[in-house]
Design a protein that fits this description.
- The protein has helices at about 30-35, 35-65, 80-85, 95-105, 120-130, 140-145, 170-175, 240-245, 270-275, 280-300, 315-325, 330-350, 360-370, 375-380, 390-410; strands at about 90-95, 110, 135, 150-155, 160-165, 175, 180-185, 195-200, 205-210, 220, 250-255.
- The longest helix has 27 residues, at about 35-65.
- The N and C termini lie close together (about 10 Å).
- It has about 425 residues and is α/β, with parallel strands linked by helices.
- The strands form 2 sheets. Strands 1, 2, 3, 4, 7, 8, 9, 10 and 11 form a 9-stranded mixed β-sheet that branches. Strands 5-6 form a two-stranded antiparallel sheet.
C-alpha cells in the first residue's frame, strides 16, 4: 500500500495572483527590539554597575593609604613628612617590621599606624623595644595589651576644647588639640609611668605617654589619626604636637604595616577546616561499608564460570518475546511478527520471490485458494485484535490460510472459503 504526502508551500512566487498571496514572515525592527528587550536591559545594568565600580575603585585609589608618608591626599601625611625633612629629620618609609629593624638606630623614633591590624602581640612587643621613642597612632586592642596594658579605650571626646594640662613637652608646645576624636582611658589612681594629656574627662585623654622601665624608652599613644593627616595637621596645635613627638631625633621610621608582616603559611589542610568528629565518623562509615560488603557478598555465593558465546534455543527466544508482548498487551505487535513470517512463507509457497509486493501475494493467494482478496487482506494485514481471543483467532486464521494455500498448490484446484474467516475482528485503517 502507498500513501502520498502533500506539503503546503509558504513562499509566494513572483507574479502570483490573489490566491497565492502570503504574509511576509520577516520580523520588524519593533518586534526585534521587543524580543531582545530583556537582554538590552540586562546589558545596560551590567554596564552601569561596571562604571560605578570603576569610579569607586578609582576614587579609592586616588585617596591612597591613610597617613602614608608619600600620599598628598587629605588622608595622607606627606605634608608632615616634608616639614620634618626640612627640619633635618631623615624620614624612612617602612612597609614591614624587617625594614624597621634594619633602619632603626640608637636614637631613632618610630611612628606606627597599623590600620588593618597586621601585627600580632609578639611583633608589637618587639617594636616597642626597638627605638627610644615610639609613636602609635590609633592603637587597637592588641597594641594596647602589648605596649600599655593599663590603658584602655575611652570613647569619642565630647569636650569642646582640648588643652594639654600635662608635663609632656610636645603637648605643652601644642597647647590645644582638634576636638571630637577618639580617646584613651587611664585607671583611676594613676600610674607613675603613664601620663595623660588633653583630658576630656577625669580618666579620658587624647594623648597618653607610657615610659618603659626596662628599656628606658617612651611610647606615645595618639588615638586620633587626624592629628597627623594633611587635612587637619595645620589646625589647632596638631602640627606642633606632631613635630614635637616625631622631631626630637635625627632619624624617623614611618612604619605602616603591610601584608609582608603576616606569617607566610600555606593554605589550611582539609583536616584543619573540618570539625574533629568528621574523621571518626568517616572511619566508622568505612568499617560499616566493609562489613556490609562481606555480609552481602556471602549471600551471592561463588562466581560461576560460563563459556561464551552461549547458544540460546529459538524456542526460548520465542517464549521470551511472547512473554514480553503479553506483559505489555502488545497484541498487534505480536500479530505483525506472525504476519511477516506468514507473508514470506506464502510468497514462497505460491512461487513469488521474497521481495514480492504484499498486493501480489494477496492476489495470488486469493486466486489459488479461491477466497475473496478482501478476506485474505484482512487476515494478512487488515484485522486488529482487541482481545487475547481475537489474537488467537487471527493466529489460527494465518495458520489455516498457509495450510489451505499449500494444499491448493499441491492439488492445483481452488477450495471454498473456510468458516474461520467469518469471525475476524475489525479491519485496521492505515494512515
Amino acid at each position: 500500500m502507498s500513501a502520498t504526502l502533500t506539503s503546503p508551500t509558504n513562499a509566494a512566487t513572483p507574479g502570483a495572483g490573489a490566491a497565492g498571496e502570503t504574509t511576509v514572515a520577516t520580523p520588524t525592527l519593533r518586534a526585534l527590539l521587543h524580543r531582545s528587550s530583556f537582554w538590552m536591559i540586562a546589558a545596560a545594568c551590567i554596564l552601569a554597575i561596571a562604571i560605578i565600580a570603576v569610579l569607586v575603585s578609582g576614587g579609592s585609589q586616588a585617596a591612597g593609604r591613610a597617613l602614608a608618608g608619600d600620599n598628598a591626599a587629605p588622608a595622607g601625611a606627606m605634608a608632615l613628612v616634608e616639614v620634618l625633612g626640612q627640619q633635618g629629620v631623615t624620614v624612612t618609609l617602612a612597609g614591614s617590621l624587617a625594614e624597621v629593624r634594619s633602619a632603626v638606630g640608637a636614637d631613632s623614633t618610630v611612628l606606627l599606624y597599623d590600620e588593618n591590624s597586621y601585627l600580632d602581640q609578639s611583633q608589637l612587643r618587639e617594636l616597642g623595644g626597638l627605638a627610644v621613642r615610639t609613636v602609635v597612632v590609633a592603637p587597637d586592642f592588641l597594641a594596647l595589651q602589648a605596649l600599655a596594658p593599663t590603658v584602655g579605650f575611652g570613647g569619642v571626646s565630647d569636650a569642646e576644647t582640648l588643652t594639654a594640662d600635662c608635663s609632656v613637652p610636645a603637648a605643652n608646645q601644642a597647647g590645644e588639640l582638634v576636638p571630637g576624636g577618639d580617646t584613651l582611658s587611664i585607671p583611676e589612681g594613676g600610674d607613675s609611668l603613664v601620663t595623660g594629656c588633653f583630658a576630656s574627662g577625669s580618666e579620658t585623654f587624647s594623648l597618653v605617654q607610657v615610659a618603659n622601665e626596662t628599656t628606658g624608652g617612651l611610647v606615645s599613644l595618639v588615638p586620633d589619626p587626624r592629628v597627623f593627616n594633611n587635612e587637619n595637621v595645620t589646625g589647632y596645635g596638631n602640627a606642633a604636637l606632631a613635630l614635637g613627638l616625631l622631631g626630637p631625633s635625627d632619624a624617623l621610621i614611618w612604619y605602616l604595616p603591610t601584608l609582608a608582616d603576616l606569617p607566610r603559611t600555606g593554605p589550611p589542610s582539609l583536616a584543619e577546616l573540618t570539625p574533629g568528629w568528621v574523621t571518626p565518623v568517616l572511619v566508622l562509615l568505612a568499617l560499616v561499608a566493609v562489613a556490609a560488603a562481606i555480609w552481602r557478598g556471602r549471600r551471592f555465593g561463588p562466581l560461576v564460570a560460563e563459556n561464551l558465546p552461549v547458544t540460546v534455543k529459538a524456542s526460548e527466544t520465542m517464549e521470551g518475546r511472547a512473554r514480553l508482548y503479553a506483559r505489555g498487551n502488545a497484541r498487534l505487535r505480536a500479530l505483525d511478527a506472525l504476519r511477516v513470517g506468514a507473508v514470506q512463507r506464502l510468497a514462497r509457497i505460491v512461487g513469488l520471490g521474497r521481495l514480492a509486493h504484499l498486493e501480489e501475494v494477496i492476489g495470488t493467494v486469493a486466486q489459488i485458494t479461491g477466497r475473496e482478496p478482501d478476506r485474505v487482506r484482512r487476515v494478512l494485514v487488515g484485522a486488529i485484535p482487541v482481545s487475547d481471543s481475537q489474537l488467537m483467532a487471527l493466529s489460527d486464521a494465518l495458520q489455516a490460510l498457509e495450510t489451505a494455500t499449500g494444499q491448493a498448490v499441491r492439488a492445483g484446484a481452488p477450495e471454498s472459503a473456510s468458516p474461520e474467516f467469518s469471525t475476524l475482528p475489525a479491519e485496521r485503517m492505515d494512515p
